[in-house]
Amino acid sequence: MAVIDIKVPDIGDFAEVGVIEVLVNAGDTIKVEQSLITVESDKASMEIPSSHAGVVKEVKVKLGDKVAEGSVVLTLEAADAGAAVAPAAAPAPAASEAKPPAAPAAQAPVAPKIEAASFGGTADVECDVLVLGGGPGGYSAAFRAADLGLKVVIVERYSTLGGVCLNVGCIPSKALLHVAAVIDEASHLKAAGIDFGTPQVNVDTLRGHKEKVIGKLTGGLAAMAKMRKVTTVRGVGQFVGANHLEVEETTGAKGQEKTGSKKVVAFKRAIIAAGSQAVHLPFMPKDPRVVDSTGALELKEVPKRMLILGGGIIGLEMGTVYSTLGARLDVVEMMDGLMQGADRDLVKVWQKMNAHRFDNIMLKTKTVGAEATPEGIKVSFAAAEEGGTAPEPQVYDLVLQAVGRTPNGKKIGAEKAGVAVTDRGFIDVDIQMRTNVPHIFAIGDIVGQPMLAHKAVHEAHVAAEVIAGELTGDKALASAAFNARVIPSVAYTDPEVAWVGLTEDQAKAQGIKVKKGLFPWTASGRAIANGRDEGYTKLLFDDSPEAHGHGKILGGGIVGTHAGDMIGEIALAIEMGADAVDIGKTIHPHPTLGESIGMAAEIAHGSCTDVPPQKK
Ligand code: FAD
């Protein structure tokens, strides 16, 4: 076979163009007209096709090289050196039409085709990857892409990286919940003969402690961005075309005051990680006594009477903090139970332990009005469904709106880039996190439920890897995909409630036959020693006839102290397809709460000796 040079053909008016994508590797078998590289001038990008079929011997160009007509792209062992076609450089399709490289079973989101705006201005900053939003999704994507050798810009409107999670979400709430847990734990010690007395709470110092925790983490992120040479552009970003984002610069330590200056960032690929924000009920008055989770975390003062609107995890976590600091709680929830998503038996344990915090738990009840009065916020209720309660209006010192979060998809000029956004503001993606526009990706809260930081981080890594693979020609990276089987959920209340995979309620509803292994913590030496034996660990195994008695683990739940720290083991077992013997025969250290997972598996298997003999 003849070895021939494949060269850049006539590329029209351009003397020299930059290589922005290398699409083949040495050893690849290629066809005539297959795209080899993408080049870009200041006016357009185009793909350079092969004039021959054959096997690539050596790729002679790399990303960033400048090429012109006649430059050698690669050497080829040509299948038939004579069978050449006269190649013509094909202008790369408009961004919204470009064909994505083959992805493993990636289902491109079906979305109406939106014509991207054409941006005629000049860019102030250029990069391989633009990341819009510096939350856990955004910074993880940016850092991974930088680690893979790409030039990355993050656009974030606030002064610090970390997004909702680090600044006004996961971390500050856990800093406060830790303090609340220690106060509660100390009070439990009375029964063991240790009385610390009534705690003296200095709310200002506590707020300072929380701020310090946030500062430590966000400062760390800023340092890591620097180490990776990731450029952070501060401001509100809006797409102005398929490859350009305009940033209205912002300033100030906390807010997003506009400076009046603008910058344009040009990008080859973009990752949208613009997150979500709290839903505000339209009839709630604008009053400092009505807050969302961000306002509640400011911890201005401790109210006497507090209403939590919405009985989900965020509301109940914040309620735990305020109640431990002295507030009396009411909670109103439209559904028939608190903490939806978790098995009811797990929630029951939490509810029993926490009954003392609440004056009223109003289920199947909706809030229909609210009025700011000098005495407080007067809130009216109605039955949400038959059987629901319709209590008399009540007056509260603080009302926390915790009725869900809404994605920021409609606020970023997505349509200018051709990116489709759903009516609710979500952006649909495939398993490679690619939107309907093949060079624009989206991750985190903005792509859908569950809105959790750990989901965002994993999606971020996938998007960054796919992009790096495409831009560097690394096929393994380019085929990355988000294919986690399960995503764990945790309520960091006291006790904690954690669950992953199939729940028992879902198994019942879906008619899935499961074998349950339930280990009560009343049989756990460690839980008893801790004075906290109210919890249990539950594992669910496939009990379908096809499993022949060796069913794999399908799900699990834990209620008890440190449940959130332990649920990861169950997630790993599900990912690895473990069965009850695998888990039960894994030696867990004694005495730990973690061994309750091994024992729950032994119970399912019928070999546990730490509980009374099981009925055959
Ligand atoms: P975000 O964290 O929302 O980040 C998006 C970023 O984009 C923000 O910094 C925003 O300022 C920026 N941005 C948006 N639009 C623009 C624009 N146009 N220009 C520039 N910047 C923009 N999750 C957990 O896993 N565990 C928990 O314990 C947990 N606790 C929580 C507690 C509370 C009180 C709340 C509110 C949330 C909690 N979450 C928790 C959820 C978690 O915070 C989110 O799932 C996570 O932050 C989502 O990450 P993200 O990167 O998608 O978006």
TrEMBL record:
Disulfide bonds: C165-C170
Leading EC class: oxidoreductase
Anything else known: The active site is a redox-active disulfide bond.
GO molecular function: dihydrolipoyl dehydrogenase (NADH) activity; flavin adenine dinucleotide binding
Known catalytic reactions: N(6)-[(R)-dihydrolipoyl]-L-lysyl-[protein] + NAD(+) = N(6)-[(R)-lipoyl]-L-lysyl-[protein] + NADH + H(+)
Any one GO biological process: 2-oxoglutarate metabolic process
Cofactor binding notes: Binds 1 FAD per subunit.
Active site positions: H590 (proton acceptor)
EC number: 1.8.1.4
Binding-site positions, FAD: K174, G237, D445, M451, L452, A453, H454
Keyword annotations from UniProtKB, A to Z: Disulfide bond, FAD, Flavoprotein, Lipoyl, NAD, Nucleotide-binding, Oxidoreductase, Redox-active center
Swiss-Prot/TrEMBL cofactor(s): FAD; (R)-lipoate
Domain of life where this protein originates: Bacteria
Family: Belongs to the class-I pyridine nucleotide-disulfide oxidoreductase family.
Domain Lipoyl-binding: 3-77
Protein name as annotated: Dihydrolipoyl dehydrogenase
Matching SUPFAM superfamilies: FAD/NAD(P)-binding domain, FAD/NAD-linked reductases, dimerisation (C-terminal) domain, Single hybrid motif
InterPro entries attached to this UniProt entry: 2-oxoA_DH_lipoyl-BS (IPR003016), Biotin_lipoyl (IPR000089), Class-I_Pyr_Nuc-Dis_Oxidored (IPR050151), FAD/NAD-bd_sf (IPR036188), FAD/NAD-binding_dom (IPR023753), FAD/NAD-linked_Rdtase_dimer_sf (IPR016156), Lipoamide_DH (IPR006258), Pyr_nuc-diS_OxRdtase (IPR001100)
Residue sites binding NAD(+) per the record: G310, G311, G312, I313, I314, G315, L316, E317, E333, G404
